[in-house]
Write a structure and sequence with these properties.
Radius of gyration: 16 Å
Order of helices and strands: EHEHEEEEHHHH
Mean pLDDT: 94
CATH architecture: Alpha-Beta Complex
Strand content: 15-25%
CATH topology: Maf protein
Number of helices: 6
CATH class: Alpha Beta
Largest sheet: 6 strands, mixed
Length: about 180
């Protein structure tokens, strides 16, 4: 199984490799434009970025599936503050499925800077005194004290968007 990931970010590629390991895929990162802002600021924009990445990765390769992953921030109804969100999209060229990863409330000092126009990764790097936190544990790892990390969190979005392609329950056949 050949998988094209719509990013060359090693964390996103690793999330796909780790999550789909039981299927023994060959995973290739493909640099594509998400078609959304560097910091998506709604669920709709984050999902659109994941969809664009999936479609463009597949179109640029001979892979069986294209997978797009996108992190963003959003204000969620019934949830105080600004939240980190993660979405995945998977396509085989005919069908497009979407799934989300975890959602985490951002601390006020982070949320305020992001709400003022900052990007989450650089804001976190500045506050933590790090470089490229988005290519390691990510905000998810920092904000959960390592209970999860960016690779694992994005892996959940991979599982939820890829799952419909490997189960019969979406084809009208229910096999519990």
């Amino acid at each position: 199984m050949e998988i094209a990931v719509g990013s060359t970010n090693p964390v996103k590629v690793a999330a796909v490799e780790r999550t789909l390991e039981p299927y023994e895929p060959t995973v290739t990162g493909v640099g594509v434009d998400s078609g959304v802002s560097e910091q998506p600021r709604s669920i709709a924009e984050t999902v659109r970025g994941a969809e664009n990445r999936a479609r463009r990765a597949l179109a640029d390769t001979e892979a069986d599936y294209g997978i797009g992953l996108e992190g963003g921030v959003a204000r969620l109804e019934g949830v105080p503050g600004l939240s980190l969100i993660m979405w995945g999209a998977t396509t085989d060229g005919d069908r497009l499925e979407r799934g989300s990863g975890p959602t985490l409330r951002l601390p006020d000092r982070v949320a305020d800077r992001v709400a003022d126009g900052g990007e989450l990764g650089p804001v976190m790097d500045d506050l933590l005194g790090t470089e490229n936190v988005a290519e390691s544990d990510g905000a998810a790892g920092v904000l959960t004290a390592g209970l999860t990390d960016r690779t694992q969190a994005l892996g959940e979005a991979v599982a939820c968007s890829f799952g419909p392609f490997v189960t019969d329950t979406y084809d009208g056949v229910w096999k519990p």
